């Protein structure tokens, strides 16, 4: 028991009697560093300040009142916002007999979950087992966290031989690391080896994900359909199958898959949100409204509430012609999420949709102006919301406002929106003049960024220079000067600071694009030689 003395444990439970009981149990097994949280919000604040080795979390954090998040919703937030890492032991405590909730908790992969009532020996055994697994995997996890993915793969290979008890855990992590490196074929090979031995759901799901990454969508669909048939509680398979069907361009079919998943596991907020989005795309505003209403309700007590959920609900209600209901949602948004530019933008945009549907175009225009002004100072808004706002501006002939909003999208290198997609917003609106203007603005901004990158490089900020160059590439992906600058900047960073797999892929891709445009470009051969030398230097290719 002495080895437990340094463990830091967070108990999340609203019941004073249960907290005392857990404290006594933990003391009996040598754990004295125990802190407490009475609800999800308190737990999130404590986890934002420090890390814990073990989290013991009651499932029914609301004590049956329905007020606040439950343990499943807390775990979903902790995973999504990376407040706990792979080495954090999260054990769910529950006496909940509702089937759907148990499935929801299980699909979020807590380290373990314990059904009440339980004894000290049972709790001790679960914690001991989790600690042994963590000790075995910790070196690989730490290397992965430091970006040393290849070293982590080698550690997994050694761990499989040294700790056969955790061989499958090491195998799974090794496959995940190959995926992180973009080596989907190697990961697929590992998953297939596992499946040849036994039909494990995580291996089948991993294989399907590698197929999607390699654009083998039909093959992935076949694997996923077989997985669901054999294990109808493998919830991630439904999500990925719906994504495959969306790629095929049939949102109504994807909606049916997600509806089936929600009927089995009805409490995952992000799945409900996705169902609402797919239903809107399929033209089923009734299902979209139901889904978004549940999202707003379930996320009400989250520290990470997203005002865009209200916008989505307003869109569904407006589509159904329920102007009064949409107005109520706007008022709820204003009451409960005021005080940030993002919330202000969402409130104004939602109000514009309501005013437009109510036949008040002047009021809608005023709200659109307010929304655009708020977007300029907001962070965290999705590209989809901004594109919708730009389209609404175009509908009301607010040309400069639409262009301003789309520029904020293109200024975000992580938006996932390409130059062609951004310009396409204006083309679809029948405004080729604005599309041309957007193209010219992006080209001009890319040139400015090249100058900024030069200044950063001259000041020794190699990483900053590459980041700025990638921003320029996002704005002008077909500009030969930008391609050459990006490749050269990346190679300089790699040579000075070490190999970076993602950046190496970007450099290789840009060299191929340069070759396709101008195979005789005077910088191409030198860049290729430098790239080859860097790979040999870091053991990425044979010398």
What does this structure look like?
There is one protein chain. The protein is mainly alpha-helical. Among the domains are: 141 residues, Response regulator (Rossmann fold, 3-Layer(aba) Sandwich); 103 residues, Tetratricopeptide repeat domain (Serine Threonine Protein Phosphatase 5, Tetratricopeptide repeat, Alpha Horseshoe), CATH 1.25.40.10; 59 residues, no CATH class. Helix content is 69%, strand content 5%. The protein has 26 helices and 5 strands. A 5-stranded parallel beta sheet has the order 2-1-3-4-5. α21 runs antiparallel to α22. The longest helix has 27 residues. The protein starts with 7 loop residues before the first strand and ends in a 6-residue tail after the last helix.
| Overall form | globular
Alpha carbon gyration radius = 26 Å
CATH superfamily of the domain at 2-142: Response regulator
Percent helix, as a range, is 55-70%
Poorly predicted tracts of residues = none
Averaged pLDDT: 91
Instruction: State the CATH class of the domain at 2-142.
Output: Alpha Beta
Content-based structural category = mainly alpha
Proportion of beta-strand residues = under 5%
Count of individual helical segments: 26
Output the keywords.
globular; 543 residues; five-stranded parallel beta sheet; Serine Threonine Protein Phosphatase 5, Tetratricopeptide repeat
């Amino acid at each position: 028991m002495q080895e437990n003395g340094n463990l830091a444990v967070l108990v999340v439970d609203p019941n004073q009697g249960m907290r005392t009981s857990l404290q006594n149990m933990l003391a009996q097994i040598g754990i004295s560093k125990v802190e407490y949280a009475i609800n999800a919000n308190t737990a999130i604040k404590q986890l934002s300040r420090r890390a814990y080795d073990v989290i013991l979390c009651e499932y029914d954090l609301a004590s049956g009142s329905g007020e606040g998040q439950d343990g499943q919703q807390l775990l979903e937030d902790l995973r999504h916002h990376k407040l706990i890492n792979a080495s954090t032991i999260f054990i769910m405590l529950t006496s909940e007999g509702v089937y759907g909730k148990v499935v929801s908790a299980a699909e979020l992969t807590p380290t373990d979950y314990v059904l009440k009532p339980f004894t000290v020996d049972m709790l001790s055994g679960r914690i001991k087992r989790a600690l042994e697994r963590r000790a075995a995997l910790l070196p690989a996890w730490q290397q992965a966290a430091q970006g040393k993915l290849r070293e982590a793969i080698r550690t997994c290979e050694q761990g499989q031989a040294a700790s056969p008890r955790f061989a499958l855990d090491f195998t799974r992590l090794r496959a995940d690391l190959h995926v992180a490196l973009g080596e989907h074929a190697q990961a697929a090979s590992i998953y297939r080896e596992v499946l040849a031995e036994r039909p494990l759901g995580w291996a089948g799901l991993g294989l399907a994900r590698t197929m999607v990454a390699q654009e083998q969508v039909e093959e992935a669909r076949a694997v996923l359909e077989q997985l669901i048939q054999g294990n109808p509680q493998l919830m991630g398979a439904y999500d990925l199958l719906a994504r495959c069907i969306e790629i095929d361009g049939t949102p109504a079919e994807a909606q049916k898959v997600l509806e089936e998943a929600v009927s089995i596991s009805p409490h995952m907020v992000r799945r409900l949100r996705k169902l609402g989005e797919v239903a809107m795309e399929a033209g089923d505003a009734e299902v979209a409204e139901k889904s978004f209403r549940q999202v707003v309700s379930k996320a009400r007590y989250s520290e990470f509430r997203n005002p865009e959920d209200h916008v989505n609900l307003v869109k569904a209600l407006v589509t159904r012609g329920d102007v009064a209901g949409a107005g109520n949602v706007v008022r709820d948004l204003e009451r409960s999420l005021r005080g940030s530019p993002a919330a202000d933008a969402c409130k104004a945009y939602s109000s514009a949709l309501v005013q437009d549907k109510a036949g008040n175009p002047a009021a809608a225009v005023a709200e659109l102006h307010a929304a655009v002004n708020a977007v300029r100072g907001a962070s965290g808004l999705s590209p989809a919301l901004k594109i919708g706002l730009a389209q609404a501006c175009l509908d009301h002939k607010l040309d400069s406002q639409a262009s301003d909003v789309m520029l904020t999208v293109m200024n975000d290198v992580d938006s996932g929106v390409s130059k062609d997609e951004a310009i396409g917003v204006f083309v679809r609106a029948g405004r080729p003049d604005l599309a041309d203007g957007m193209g010219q603005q992006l080209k001009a901004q890319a040139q400015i960024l090249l100058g900024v990158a030069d200044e950063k490089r001259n000041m020794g900020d190699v990483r900053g220079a590459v980041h700025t160059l990638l921003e320029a590439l996002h704005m002008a992906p077909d500009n030969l000067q930008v391609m050459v600058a990006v490749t050269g900047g990346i190679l300089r960073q790699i040579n000075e600071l070490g190999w970076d797999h993602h950046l190496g892929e970007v450099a290789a891709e840009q060299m191929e694009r340069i070759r396709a445009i101008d195979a005789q470009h005077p910088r191409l051969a030198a860049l290729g030689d430098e790239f080859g030398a860097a790979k040999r230097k870091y053991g990425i290719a044979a010398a």
